[in-house]
Amino acid sequence: MKISGIKGLCWLVMALGFLVSGAVPESFGASPLPEGVVMQEGFEPGTGQAVGQISRVSGQTVLIHKEGTNGYWAREGIDLFENDTVMTLTDGHVAFRLADGSFVTLSPDSRMVIAKSVYAPEKTTRTTFINMIKGKARFVVKSFVESRRNEFKVKTATSVAGVRGSDFIISSTDSMTEITTLEHTELEVFSLAALDAAPVVLKDFENTTVPLGMPPGAVRKIQAEEVDRLMREFKFSPLPGEQDSVKQEWSVAARTETAEILMVDRDDLIYSDVDRFWADVNRLPMLADDFKVRRSFLIGSEIRDQNLLLTQQRSEDIQEQELPDFPGTP
User: For the chain, what percent of residues have pLDDT higher than 70?
Assistant: First the structure.
């Protein structure tokens, strides 16, 4: 009894020590943090402009900025930045909203990187790339009409999903991706093993799997009980009034703005630690065609600008030349 009591006291002291220090040992069932990451008190913002904000948290969720070794415990109201890693531990649930109003929530033991998020309503453009490393996430993505550029893509270890419309769940491991659509949704699903092949298109309440090195499996309809089972894995859903996954028009000012089209440089699209994400996405036919169109437009614009500049220069040269003397009076 004495030995048992001493052991119990030791375990109690250890548990209190871990609670005070904020550390959560693997032996207690918590997800291990990435190697080298040290949890910090408080919160330091990332670099650049915020691209989203944590809206709800339950349990433990870790935020890590680009190429950082400092981890921060997620709290409601904390801003998110490009290339932030969002990681839920074993008891963690988190939800956040991106600047365009899209809603994302993660179940426990999940990890993703917000590789790119550009939202410019005044230019009717939205470009979002998310790298889903592992776990489960639900995406309720805003869909816009009459946009100059509208891209929202989620990459896993085996697939890339191009979002057309908007409520779906992705479950990802190193060797398998499962994608399930909910209401008002249309996705194009590519396998990383065959990005040049035609995509599999998912519509409302459909499911497909993408094994490592294989094309997407057959599309099948899902039953109501499957939807209920999936939804129970997530603690958070969009609040009333937030779940506007249907098409949304840009403002009148945005639709009539013609001064400039946003061109994102390739080097700026994906940071160095997710270069493979860019390499895969760049091979997608639907993206490649879009880039070719924009490149042709840009080249044509440059040629027109150069011709205009030459014409103006010639006109100025002619005006600067001295006029010849008039002949004398006869």
Answer: 62
Residue ranges per structural domain of the chain: 37-289
Q: Where are the beta strands (DSSP E) in 60-217?
A: 61-64, 70-73, 79-80, 85-88, 93-98, 103-106, 111-120, 125-140, 143-145, 149-155, 159-163, 167-172, 176-181, 187-191, 200-202, 206-211
Q: Which residues of 124-157 are buried (b: 16+ CB within 10 A; e: fewer)?
A: bbbbbbbbbbbbbbbbbbbbbeebbbbbbbbbbb
Reported as a single tens digit per residue, the pLDDT across 34-85 is 788 999 999 999 999 999 999 999 999 999 999 889 999 999 999 999 999 9
Structural contact between residues 79 and 63, judged by C-beta atoms closer than 8 angstroms: no
Question: Looking at the domain that runs over 37-289, which CATH code has it been given?
Answer: 2.60.120.1440
Residue of 177, 174, 175, 176 lying closest to 154 (CA atoms)? 177
Q: Can you give the pTM of this predicted structure?
A: 0.69
Token reading at 309: 């500049």
Angstrom distances, CA of residue 244 to CA of 103, 141, 183:
10, 9, 11
Tell which residue, 163, 157, 97, has the closest CA to residue 129. 163
Q: What angle do CA 148, 153, 159 make, to 5 degrees?
A: 145
> Which helix or strand (DSSP H or E) is residue 213 part of?
none
